[in-house]
Amino acid sequence: MTATPAQTERPQTDVDRIAERYFDAAVDLSPINATSLGVPGRDDELDDLSPAGNAAVAALRQATLAELATATAVDDVDRVTIAAMSERLGLAQERYAAGLDEMALNVIASPLQSVRDVFDLMPQQTEENWRVFAARLSRIPAALQGYQESLALARERGQVSSSRQVTACAEQSRALTDDDGYFAKVVADATVGGAPIDGELRDRLARSAEEASAAYREIADFLESDLLPHAPAEDACGRSRYELESRYFLGAAVDLEETYSWGQQEVADLRAQMEQIADGLEAGASVERGVEILNADETYQLHGTDALKAWMQQRADEVISNLADVHFDIPEPVRTIECRIAPTQTGGIYYTGPSDDFSRPGRMWWSVPKGNTEFGTWNELTTVYHEGVPGHHLQVAQTVYRSGLLNKWRRLEAWTSGHGEGWALYAERLMAELGYMDDPGNRMGWLGGQSLRAARVVIDIGVHCGFDAPDEVGGGAWTYDKAWTYLTRYGFMDEKVLHFELDRYLGWPGQAPSYKIGERLWLSLRDEVKQREGDAFDLKAFHRRALDIGGVGLDTLRAAVLGEI
Length: 565
Hints:
Blueprint: H1 14-29, H2 31-36, H3 51-69, H4 76-97, H5 100-103, H6 111-117, H7 127-138, H8 140-156, H9 163-176, H10 182-188, E1 191-192, E2 195-196, H11 199-227, H12 239-250, H13 256-281, H14 287-296, E3 301-303, H15 305-323, E4 337-341, E5 349-352, E6 362-366, E7 374-376, H16 381-387, H17 392-401, H18 408-413, H19 417-433, H20 440-465, H21 480-490, H22 495-507, H23 513-533, H24 539-547, H25 554-561
Helix pairs in contact: 1-3, 3-4, 4-12, 6-8, 7-11, 8-11, 9-11, 10-11, 13-14, 13-20, 16-19, 19-23, 20-21, 20-23, 21-22
């Protein structure tokens, strides 16, 4: 067994105590987040999603910001904690003051989804597990009622998500309650030791599931009857809100006009590289023809979700074995990742981190759209690197492991999309640099993924900020049809997935570009450190130093790595 990098022990400071008090109070206010972070004791509860619940969270943030403003740092770790928490909590307060917490409704990351998604992280092995599961299911009606109150308050303020998001969320809610939807399946599939649960426990689970189903039917009715008539047809959120959302998701302010132009150039450059690969597959072939060739190549094909899951696990384990102690310090607990097929069917691929004690491992989830049974590995290998190692799993789990160095907030809760998703795209690029994408199909898949992420930058910024669309889709004001044409031209994925992707960009402004912009800032930081250190630059040491800082905003990351905090 390879030696695990030694933990750095550091005495707890007053700043650490502020951070940990905040962390404990925050997870106390959010049982959903407690489960997500692996904090035990609240798995039978759900959040207060009402305006009063949002106000309590905001009050905690404000009190913590006041403590941080007068705190004295004793070392660099403290200085980073103060900078990171002040930036993260301060931006969250700006979003709250703007009314964005109450109006939150979109197809991927709003309370409507988090109330259901948390159940995927709950253990389901014993009868006691199922009792806790049923108890939390029974809390869904109250949670969604509080959420309706928040949406109604936002409506009174004139803040309602676009009609596209409202309609799609109502459809999502009804899908959960179908005869073959989530709540019916969770009861039908409930087992202990391979045998179906029965008796009083099964009755309790069935009652709770039906109560949950009724609550989701009710909120679907509310969305359609009470919210939809007030929902704007316009998808764009507007420049002012977008600037705030972009800063929140990046932890940095960027020049949106310059970034919009850069995104279009990235799309063109990636297209040119893909054209070269397509020509190598068949002389004169277009990119689209190259994709057809690869999709028809049995070498890259998987049949069924069981084969997909096994392939994911094999590739994830393989790269951990190959990279550990060579390009990364990977602690022993981090060398375990679990790959799963998600119980939902939205088309998303995502990662959930380990619990603090690693009793629940980090997991890579693949939410396969209904009816999809055939998968092309050429298009998916890069995603395994993105979600696993050296992507999210290494990034998140390694930070969780640093209990001797970082406080709980830094290790478990600090997260910035531009940092996290930017690192994951950087990780994909690193695998290409290390030769893992030399196979023409796998390289085409990586470039295709990069192309999608670059296209997101263009669509997201262009639509929400009201910039002129590229000439290739007609110029002038963006429309849904222009965005769809652009996305399908540069995003080489199943149409069901792309439809969901576009709805996501339109309903969650600023998040989708954080991947590619985050990668750009990570690469810029690496180049700056290389230039400073010259021949002494060591890539493995750079990775360790940067990842040990945790998921802070990108401006904070840069300053911390360069010793400017």
